[in-house]
Amino acid sequence: MLVSLRSARDGGGGGGGGGGGKGDAAGDGASRPSVRVANVHAEHPIWVTTADKPGLTLDMVLSVYIRRGRLPEPGEIVFCLPSTSEEEVELLLRRYIKARANQRDDAIFCLVNVHNLPYTTQVAVVKMLKTFISRYGTTGASGLLVVSGLPGQVILSSLSSYAVDLPPLELSTLQQKCAEVFARSGGNSNGGTSCVRSRINGGGKSHYILTAAVNAQHEAAAAGRQVRYYRVGYREATNASTLVQQLSTKLVRAEDAGGEDTVPTTNFFHLDIGHIVPQTANTVLFQLLFVGVLSDQRSGLIYHRDPADAYLIEVSNSPLDKTAEMLRVCRFLPNTMLDVSAETLEFKRPEVSRRPCTDWRTERAQTNSIAMHAREQTRHVHFGVVVVVVVVVAVLVTASDNRWCRTTPRTSSARTTRSCATLARR
Predict the structure, then answer these.
(1) Is 52 helix (H, G, I), strand (E, B) or coil?
(2) Per-residue pLDDT reduced to its tens digit, 119-167
(3) Residue 194 and residue 179: Cα distance in Å, rounded?
(4) Residue 140 CB partners (closer than 8 Å, separation 6+)
(5) 3-state DSSP helix/strand/coil % of the chain, to nearest 5
């Protein structure tokens, strides 16, 4: 089954209804529309819906996949932006129209936030979809869901025959199911994926995450593995491109520094979200944490999330808790709320190892190597300082002697003349 869909029309299947209204149950006389169950083998596997608010599009999309017992896969979903190109949408439509030929019968391809697309792009998308349907038909297609956060879009009017009412699941249900999915797919003792908040500023969010990172490193060292800790900031100017570059750069530097280390390694990411975040933060974090792939369309750089990596998100405090309210995606994840009290007070400061070692011999060897390198560098510095001092003293002495010779009167004795001549030869 795909989802439990509510027909957008009050009536049954009468009067030239399209794919969205075929097979609807008879109305019960109430104001709420009727309910039907659709699957990917329907005659018209296309559904178009509008959210009550732009912020609820994530709830609607996530509900579709949660009802199927999984999270969206890379290539199944496109979050539209004003800069989204027609090529990106075309790739999604081609995957949808040829899904069964590529053994992806159960895939649900989603085009989300279409209200962000310019008018010309929406017209081009509608034309492209109708062209594919007329050329290839829908017998080899799987399912296509088009979600808009605002009504009155040209893509909604052109595809009105596929309109449905798609209510999302309750927030508590989404939280429970997401926790189960994360536990099955990538849950681990290193911390998993969760959000950390506090009731007041300075409530210990960073301390809590650092402690979790230290515990993960100790557990990994006992098991013959290692955990690398990274702190990544998410600010007002952060977008998908800059976040991909941050994550990729940190991993590349760590791999270069580690050399040919064969010790199994996982990563612990501390996402530090500022109190001011851009509007695209929800979709970017959804792609990173739920889809598992984040791409930079300009450079072609793609970041794949390892299911074994841990991601702990620190949500900053703000007046009236506006930041947490805006980050809708964090509500789907397990949340830890920190309280400041005498019982929670800790005097031990966590010290995260930037390059953890699993063997004390390796750690001692690295320490000795660093100490020897430091002594060698100190020796070179001392030698350079001595040379510079000697040169400066020689220059000063020479300049002083030359000045004394120039100020000596012509009636001086022969002995003084011989001394000046000697200094000149020097």
Answers:
(1) coil
(2) 999 999 999 999 999 999 888 999 999 999 999 999 999 999 999 999 9
(3) 9
(4) 97, 98, 99, 100, 101
(5) 45, 15, 40
